[in-house]
Amino acid sequence: MANEIGSTLLNTLTNSSFDVGNMAKVLAEASVAGPRSIMERSEQKISKELNALTYLQNNLKAFNSYAKELASPSLFSSQTVTSSDATVIGASITGSPVAGTYNIESMQLAQAHTMVANKTYASQYDTVAMGTMQIQINGQTHNITVDASNNTVEGLQRTINNGNYGVTASIVNNGGVYQMMFSSAQTGAASSFTVSGLTDFAAPADFTVTSAAQDAQMKLNGLLVSSSTNSFSGVVDGLSFQLNAASVGSVKTVTVAQDSSGVAESIKEFVAVYNQLDLILKDLGSYEKLTAAQMEDPEKEFTGDLAGSSLLRDLKTQIKDALTGVMSGSTSPYNSLASIGISMDRYGQLQLDEAALNTALSSDISSIAGMLASGGSATDAMVSVTGTNEKTLTGSYALNVTQLAERATVSSGALVPDVNGDIVLAADGSFDIKVDGSGVATVNIAAGTYTAAEFATLMNTSINNNATIQASGAQVSVTTDGSLFSITSNRFGANSVVEMSNFTNMGNAGFGANLADIGQNVDGTLTMSNGATLNIGAYADATDGRKVKISDFAVAGGEAADVRGLQFEVLGGAVGARGTIDVTQGFAGRVFELINNATLTDTGLVAQRIDSLSNRMGEIEEKRVKIDLRFEKMELKYRMQFSMLQSIMSQMKGTQDFLTATYNRPAQ
């Protein structure tokens, strides 16, 4: 730089003017060259580490998605159901049924009640007798007016089908003559009905029953159970059966088992992705000298960029430590990765023995779930832990229940039986009812004489078969102790509601005044590691008040709650101290928590280092701005100085020319 400046000066001095712009720029650049060189070297170093750490973080997060799946208890709770003969009995999982085999004998299928009127007509437009037609079904009587507007076979059919009578009508062409066929809209024994009131359809003798209403029946492990449809839901918790054909005397099997194939596939994927991550970590920390060709290889872009990094070294060690050792407190033979066929070779790569893994999964998948997944258990048999997530910290949390979940229940007044102890309804009875979130349903009870048990069964069927109640998905149970009736919602919790009103002719059954009740959610506290307590009632499930799901944003004692993401249910028991809920971390859970903590935006070590380097890049950019400003000021300064020098040189050149002209003048 000095030689360049000197040459420029010498060349300029022999001329009448300087190259002011070039000279000012050269000198200004020389004044900032040192700081700018230091800044650029720092920028290159930081950029190199920053890019490598971003690459590392992205790969850690990608791997952690596989660890998260393997750490999820739901992976191990997946179940399959198979039938030995699907043409006779089908089954589907609706919840979490107990694994096992069920012996099923299909006794009979559900049928709708169907009967054909014996009266025949020459045409579907023939007239029928006018009057009031009555359809009695499910204890309810429907009156249908037949007049000049609808007194044809086709007109009566349309009137019935346009109404909500629980019966449909069809016109059958039977060899050139027409007959009316009536069928119940639903199957089951309770769908039996009668038609009367018109001359053409006056008495049972005027009809031929072609299909008698009947419930579906099957023997479940020898126990005879019935359903109004061919679907049996709720007979076995978490399982639904579907009868497809009757097969009396032939027993079929339905088998529920845990789905080990999905677990095996997740473990294989975890091993493969871990080995990829291990190679990436080694490559980032490599001291290998790359050839020119290797430096052009995109896969070698970050090779050695974190060589010597203590952060990288510690992270590799912690991940390997999290996958080794034995689960403390486990009494199962499956208490380490090695016990299920996963070993680590001398190069740090995981090796999988698939035969050993499949043997372990078929032998004791529950123990393997506890070894791999994040999960929990309760010391109280009536408390069940159903889930955790990455925010749920390991630990033991004392549970205190101050309120058990309850269902809404209303009770009648005292029964008024006759001398035989029966309930007599001299005329049709009725009432309005709302259950849970349903609309108001009007329920009719046919006049008659009933025992208390018969009346309870009739009320139960009439309420649950009501279209408004069915549409809402609500159900009730009606029971009696012989002195009163109790109507209970099948839902637990604060959204469990039973309201009954507008009773007509129901006094002998003890119903008169309006009735209403609301259920309640489970409530109580969990004690955190810092001694603070968390109210569990605030997180009760809206559809089942026995269940609790702690929010991911729950706070206890001014801090993020240890049990965020915890899910459990209190199925009964007593109010008071209920032992502890214990949250544990399996091997996959440990790895997930380790990497998740390292990459968290605000607190993770990798994320913090990236933020620190990003801040330093920002500081360098600020220095660059200052150096550029300094360069501009120096260039302006030198421009001014050289401009002044050029002016002086110009004056000297003028004097030189004057003297030359004066003293070189020829003698006179």
Global shape: elongated
How many DSSP H or I helices? 12
Q: Radius of gyration in whole Å, from Cα?
A: 43 Å
Straight-line distance between termini? 54 Å
Q: Which regions contain 5 or more consecutive residues with pLDDT less than 50?
A: none
* Fraction of residues in helix: 25-40%
Strand line-up across the major sheet: 1-15-3-11-12
Summary tags:
668 residues, alpha+beta, 6 domains, five-stranded antiparallel sheet, 35% helix, 29% strand, elongated
Describe what this molecule looks like in 3D.
This protein folds into 6 domains: 2-66 and 614-663; 79-109 and 216-258, no CATH class; 114-211; 260-373, no CATH class; 376-405 and 521-585; 407-518, Sandwich (Immunoglobulin-like). It contains 12 helices and 36 strands. The mean pLDDT is 88. The chain is elongated. The longest helix has 59 residues, at 605-663. It has 668 residues and is α+β, with helices and mostly antiparallel strands. The strands form 11 sheets. It has a 5-stranded antiparallel β-sheet with strand order 1-15-3-11-12, with no helix packed on it. A 5-stranded antiparallel β-sheet has the order 18-36-20-30-31. Helices cover 35% and strands 29% of the residues.
